[in-house]
Design a protein that fits this description.
The chain is mostly beta strands. It has helices at 3-13, 342-354, 378-390, and strands spanning 34-38, 49-55, 60-66, 70-77, 82-87, 94-98, 104-106, 117-120, 126-130, 133-137, 143-145, 163-167, 172-179, 182-189, 202-205, 215-221, 227-232, 239-245, 252-258, 266-272, 277-282, 287-291, 296-297, 300-301, 318-322. The longest helix is centred in the last third of the chain and has 13 residues, at 342-354.
């Protein structure tokens, strides 16, 4: 479509565009607070909170969702301002967004309904682990399979990871697993446009002396640009169950060591940037504990946090993650002046005529590819038209 034709199309369409996959309007979560997702509701359907907001000073627990097929896997999506979780209410494995009011919105994905992990990027894309592969849902709600480094076929994954986190600083998916030799982290580096691998995945066996059967139960942003890793283990000795990992060099350091009765039930945890501490779920005592960097021992029990787990037992699948500020750019503002106007339209029309982001004439980074599928086409136009109609960036 030529630029003049596109201009006519814009004039006829700008006032009536709806964009799938855009953030759902709701009261926003507060950055720095945390969310705990647990399968604990399975111990008494409808009676135990499955998604819990951890907020305020002093900390308070606010149940957002009970039951609803929550299985304990999730991550925060700053683009949708929601916790994105895996749900299995009956049969299919759903990818669902949960806003600060506890409302659940399913995010459709194509193919077998087999998602097991989610890793939102914060700019609209959500990577999902599936059977033998990874896919991603783009801004517009379209599902794409992640390709191998050559771009010639699927990236075939031979493992089934337990935790995943997308690190924007390295454009990589970090995955946690357990192997015979100990806990392991896998770094899956992605291409600039996120459609394929940039190189082969790298496995790192974590150094966890004193642990019997360590496994990664949490990956989240940590202090100083590091990743915070939460390790669970059935042993009871003093050991490094909280680690920091440099996402670029894969250098590992100890954040804190823990040891107390029931320490083998530390099922989840994350670093809280607001409090500058690690929050850890002690599922045996059904309490939160916090640990400062360099701490060793039992940490500090956080008052008024009973109900964080199933209670009277330990070991349920759960994860915890911090609410991060939105990093999403104003879609359609191609010249970054705070408006989506005729100047941006001219830039979009030129990119639309080129079409393929890989073509040398396309501006670096292909900014007009709003749904990040590698092309500037009608799907991107629908998104641009809605932003043009709004004019002022939020």
């Amino acid at each position: 479509m030529a630029a003049s034709s596109l201009s006519t199309f814009v004039a006829a369409s700008l006032s009536a565009c709806l964009v799938m996959g855009m953030p759902v309007a709701s009261a926003a979560f507060t950055p720095g607070d945390c969310i705990h997702v647990t399968i604990a509701s399975g111990y008494g359907p409808g009676t135990k909170a499955a998604v819990i907001l951890i907020s305020g000073t002093p900390l308070t627990l606010t149940p957002l969702v009970t039951g609803n097929g929550i299985i304990g896997d999730g991550a925060y999506d700053s683009f949708r301002q929601s916790a994105v979780v895996i749900r299995v209410p009956v049969g299919p494995r759903l990818v669902s967004a949960i806003n600060s009011a506890g409302a659940i919105t399913d995010i459709p994905y194509s193919g077998p309904q087999d998602a097991t992990l989610v890793a939102p990027t914060g700019d609209g894309r959500i990577y999902i682990q599936r059977s033998g592969k990874w896919s991603y849902i783009d801004h517009g709600g379209v599902t794409h399979d992640l390709l191998n480094a050559a771009g010639t076929g699927l990236f075939v994954q031979t493992k089934n990871y337990r935790r995943a986190y997308y690190d924007p600083s390295t454009k990589s998916i970090f995955c946690g697993d357990a192997i015979v030799a100990g806990a392991t982290i896998t770094k899956i580096p992605l291409s600039t446009d996120g459609t394929k691998l940039a190189a082969a995945p790298t496995d790192l066996v974590l150094s966890t002396p004193g642990l019997q059967s360590p496994t990664v139960v949490g990956i989240s942003p940590g202090p100083s640009g590091k990743l915070f890793l939460k390790i669970d283990d059935n042993g009871g000795g003093l050991a490094p169950r909280m680690l920091l990992l440099d996402p670029a060099t894969l250098t590992q350091t100890v954040y804190a060591q823990s040891n107390y009765f029931g320490v083998g039930g530390e099922i989840a945890g994350c670093y809280s940037p607001k409090l500058n501490v690690a929050l850890v779920v002690d599922s045996l005592a059904d309490q939160l504990r916090f640990f400062t960097i360099g701490a060793s021992g039992a940490g500090t029990i956080v008052a008024n946090t009973s109900g964080i787990s199933s209670g009277g037992g330990s070991g349920e699948n759960a994860t915890m993650f911090a609410i991060t500020p939105s990093t999403a750019v104003c879609l359609g503002d191609l010249n970054n002046d705070g408006f989506v106007d005729d100047a941006d339209f001219s830039l979009f029309a030129a990119a639309y005529n080129i079409l393929d982001c890989a073509y040398p004439a396309m501006p670096a980074g292909c900014p007009a590819d709003l749904n990040k599928d590698g092309f500037v086409d009608d799907a991107d136009f629908s998104m641009f038209a809605a932003a043009y109609d709004a004019l002022l960036c939020p």
